[in-house]
Structures are given as C-alpha cells and as structure tokens.
Amino acid sequence: MSGDELARIAGVSRNTVYLIENTSSNVQLGTVCKLARALQTDPSAFFSNDQYRAPTELRLGNLQMVVARNVRAHRVRQEISQNQMNRDLAMAPGYLGVIERKAPDLSLDVLEKIAFYLACPLDEMLLDSKRRLIR
After folding, report:
1. pLDDT at 134 > cutoff 60
2. Architecture of 3-59 per CATH?
C-alpha cells in the first residue's frame, strides 16, 4: 500500500504519513489508532515484533483509556506517587493525574517517556488485560 493510499484510508494527511515514515514525528495516539484501523492491525504491533490479533472497533475506541489504566497500574505497582513521577519526568504539576483520569490524546513522545520511566515496553502500555499474543 502506498503512503498516499494509507493516508486516504486512515483519514490523515499524506504529510503525516511521510513524517512518520521518514522522521521521528511526534504522533498522537489518535493517529496511531487511525493507522491501525487502516492497516487492520493492533496498535501494539507498531512497537513490537510480536503478533497480535486484529483489533476490534471497541479496542481502538478504548485505546486511550487502556493507556491511562496501564500508566496508573504500573506506577502504583512500583509505589511511585504522581507528584514524584511528575517531578522526575519534568511534567507540569497534576499532568500525570490528568493522564490517568482523563486519558488525553497523548503524543507517543510523552508515552514513551512514561514507559521508559516505568521500565515498561511501549507495546505493553497499549495492551489491555484481555489482549493476547498470537502464538
């Protein structure tokens, strides 16, 4: 599939596809979902060599909430406070709380920074507890 065709099917600009393919573009989760839908692949597959089942519309529609739950779960499991993590990552006070509660359309740069801090692979941040790898 050409970049132009992918852009058309995904409903994103050709420039967005070009930047993702050729630079370290700061992509939003919403764009990741659009591309996953167009390519009929799970968003986690973009960040891992593992094979995942094809996503459902419900899965793609809930991705931001899944990410929010995973950020909170990993942080709590490691007994790190929101304030401490905000300070360590140089985030605005309260921003992590917004991420965990409201699941904004995060950029992959921010999500990658959080995942690295929590020592969690980026693809796992995108997985809900019901998603299983294809073995």
Report:
1. no
2. Orthogonal Bundle (1.10)
pLDDT at 123 over 80: yes
Distances (CA, A) of 68 to 2, 49, 84: 33, 23, 17
Report how far apart, in Å, the C-alpha atoms of 71 and of each of 12, 13, 58, 97, 117 are: 27, 29, 20, 10, 10
Residue 50 contacts residue 88 (beta carbons within 8 Å)? no
**CATH number for the domain running over 62-125:** 1.10.260.40
Nearest-CA neighbor of 48 among 104, 117, 131?
A: 131
Residue that the structure tokens 């058309």 belong to = 8
- What are the start and end residues of each CATH 1.10.260.40 domain in the chain? 3-59, 62-125
Per the model's pLDDT, the better-predicted residue between 26 and 132 turns out to be 26
